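Predict structure. Chain length: 97.
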Amino acid sequence: MWKSAGLSGAGLLLSASRGIFVRTPTAGGHGPMAEKKKTGRPGRKPPPGVKKPLLTSMDPDVIARIKSAAALRGTTASLLLEGISREWLDRHQDGKK
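Prediction complete.
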């Protein structure tokens, strides 16, 4: 008599009388031949090495206004903030040029 061992979807069957373990393919893609899942979130990302992410915290109202202003100008919030940052850096000393 064969019973499923049910070990984390490993697809193991065991015989109660013989102590035999047999690996079987499992449904749901948990076996060794399962397809790799895509990781991360979908979206546009720049090519590697071109740009780096910057995480910052802002008031939600400011974020909404930035996104709205970017949409009105047909650009993204990221490109809008990059342009504004470059302009600010041109007017202020940052140690580089």
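Summary: The chain is about 30% helix and 10% strand.
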